[in-house]
Amino acid sequence: MASRSPPQSWEYLLTKEELLWRNHYVWLKEHDYLLRPRYNPDWVPSQWIAGKELSELGFDLRFEDSQANAKFSKNYKVMDATRISDGAFVVLKPINIAMYEEEIPIGLWFSEEPQASDPANHCVPILEVLDFPDVPGKRIIVMPQLCRYDKPRFDTVGEAVEFMRQVFQGLQFMHKNNIVHRDCNAENIMMDVTRLFPTPYHPLDTRMKRDWSGRVSHLTRTQRPVKYYLIDFGLSVRYAPGAHRPPEPIVLGGDRSAPEFRMKDGVLPMECDPFPTDIYYIGNLLRTDFVEGRGYGPRPPKLGFEFLRPLMEDMVQDDPALRPTMDEVVRRFDEIIRGLSRRKLRSRVVKVDDDFDCFYAVTHWFRMIASIIRRREPIPSP
């Protein structure tokens, strides 16, 4: 087959979402943010250098620059970058300010003092806000690079308990400051895993090194405690201190299962009190990700979390007025945790469908013994 000359531009290999970033690569670099080589206007796919045929270019997943921020990726709405001035890994998120007018003001308020230094604040900080030079109505918020809360998976019950404690504390902090999240589902709870990974991981796959040269290893949360964050305030509402909190129009986020969204007597409700709905979202996360699992997808229940059931069931009651407030949730959760033994907290987190693996069981025991010798707390708070 006769060879073909490479095209002048490889942008045809990029998705529509990726072209936005490619077109602003130089501008972002001028503002201290460097995107991956894939988005450099002068990018030549490494597959071409490796001698691939033109028809094969751009789709060989063995190469780092084939990792696309596309719609089949959960991260396609944001873009990872490196801050040139200090090498920090960050995330860039474009915001449609007409559609999500409160996301930036609320995020900036949580990022200001004295809120930023409050240990109860678990809202993701906004590091900077940029204005697109040629995209009217859109701004970019810069945030630390974070990972989904359960990747890597929990090693011990105590690690999962600390996750719940921080999330409860974070939502309580929001509610105390008259702010309701309205979309606090599993996809919007992240963690800073910088200390877990001695070698930087790839932003699209935490199992791989950042340069895609191989698998990356990580420590446990007990060895290196982490901090969890609530993200995405696009649907959030802020009330003035002491102001009346009227019902809000119902908006559907990632979790659409709340009972107050269901049709009643043939009528679809149009509004609800969003504070109890926040309680439902977090209670439903306990139900689907820990106690009972989901009836769909790869989300089996985890063994050993039945101690959460009484609190969880109260948080997901059909009548929003019967659900506990966040203050009550935090108080009851603290009482539950005080009743757990240190042995229970150090026990391994096992999913229902996990096959018995002697290697993992033995290595867990070695880690547990090492933690006891080093006097690491079974609930690893940062």
From TrEMBL:
Secretion signal, residue range per the UniProt entry: none
Domain of life: Eukaryota
Lineage of the organism: Eukaryota, Fungi, Dikarya, Basidiomycota, Agaricomycotina
This protein's UniProt keywords: Kinase, Transferase
Annotated ranges, domain Protein kinase: 61-337
Transferase keyword on record: yes
MF (Gene Ontology): ATP binding; protein serine/threonine kinase activity
UniProt xrefs under Pfam families: Pkinase
Entry-linked InterPro entries: Kinase-like_dom_sf, Prot_kinase_dom
PROSITE patterns linked: PROTEIN_KINASE_DOM
GO cellular component, one term: cytoplasm
Name of the protein in question: Kinase-like domain-containing protein
Record-level GO BP terms: mitotic DNA damage checkpoint signaling
